[in-house]
Amino acid sequence: MRELKAIDQRMVIALVGNKSDLQDQRQVRAQEAKLYAEEQSLLFLETSAKTALNVNELFFELAEALPKKNDYDAEAEELRSLPLSQPPPPSGGGCCGGK
Fold it and tell me: For residue 62, is it within any domain?
């Protein structure tokens, strides 16, 4: 989680418990997973591909949590306003070891 969050703080991460239709084979309690997701600021849903429980909801919640285009436009505008660094002058006089 630290590595993912270090890449981009706006990254949307979801913790998804699959196969919720197999309650008798559960490996992690729902409350334990929900608590972890809250601690890490993750979306959390339990799903079942077999019954389609929460599958659509997962995609809707992910889409809703994604940064909006305007957020990216503002960031791009900010980056455009920064001064460009100049590339270093060529050394030698050619591309192949200065020949």
Answer: yes
